[in-house]
Amino acid sequence: MTIPKRQSMQVYLPVVLPLLSGLVLFLFAVNYLSDGLKAISGDKLNDWLSRFTRNVVTGILTGIAITTLLDSSSVVIIMTIALVNARSLTFRQALGVVLGANIGTTFSSQLIAFDIGQWAGLPMAVGLGLMMLGRRDQLTQCGQVLVGLGMLFLGLYLMEEAVEPLKKMPAVSRWMQGLDNPWWGALIGAGATVVLQSSSATVGMAIILVGQQLLDLSAGIALMMGAELGTCADTLLASVGRSRAALRTGLFHLSFNLLSILAGLLLILPFSQLVLWVSAGAKPERQLANAHVLFNVVGVLAVAALVPFVANRLEQWLPDKPEQPAPAES
């Protein structure tokens, strides 16, 4: 028996509108929070990237620190590509930062897994007070960060409340069961990230769906892996038309994520068992957040020692253009 269109609208509209509101608020909060953190740090980020990337290990640690601070791996990697293009950073220095950014982005999933949406008003109220009463720019910027953090929590809370009725809808349950195919789930995650322009939003939605028991852990992991692939779209676009070194940096990010995801999808069942063992007794949403950390940390550790080899191959495949000689003076 099919549900009439009008009745279907009445069923799904009370879910879709709050879900859309929460998603828009979350995406706005991510950008607002990132802008506030960048304003606080100023030009120091460029200095840190150029000073603390002497080798792969320090590059990874720098990438982790800055991505955790800005809550956006795309911003950090795009900034790194720009520095490589400007020759403020070498291609080989950039590779450690790219790997570290993949680990740093997992901080947001750990934050999302905390059930603190009901406290969202507290950082927003404190932040608004600082923005209204602060006489120094730094206090105003700190207020912006707190307001952005509160809006992020509120957006997650709205989405979590919106999807609650979906558990009782057979059509939604059938569609969710289709995501049990990890390859299809990863494709959905990648597409969602390209559309939303935020892997954090995709991972956040996956955490919510797993927490509401609309998805099992393996399906949530597949969505998360897809989000890792979707986030490469921005960095590839940022490298188009740049120097060969900048283009190699974007291709390294894509290659690393793609190979990690292929390996993860092929080993998704044993990986899920490992996550359950590591996260014994944890809530489902925390299990997925831990899976995000474990997936990226293992991937970086597996590749870190091979960075010089990969760098050599990329430089051979895509060498720098020969510099044009300066015109002779007449």
UniProtKB/TrEMBL annotation:
The chain crosses the membrane at residues 12-33, 56-84, 91-110, 145-163, 183-210, 217-238, 258-279, 291-311. It comes from the Bacteria. InterPro entries: Na/Pi_transpt. The keyword Transmembrane helix applies. Keywords: Cell membrane, Membrane, Transmembrane, Transmembrane helix. One of its GO terms (molecular function) is sodium:phosphate symporter activity. It is a multi-pass membrane protein. One of its GO terms (cellular component) is plasma membrane. GO terms for biological process: sodium-dependent phosphate transport. It is found in: Cell membrane. Its main location: membrane. This is Phosphate:Na+ symporter. It comes from Spirosoma fluviale. The lineage of its organism: Bacteria, Pseudomonadati, Bacteroidota, Cytophagia, Cytophagales.
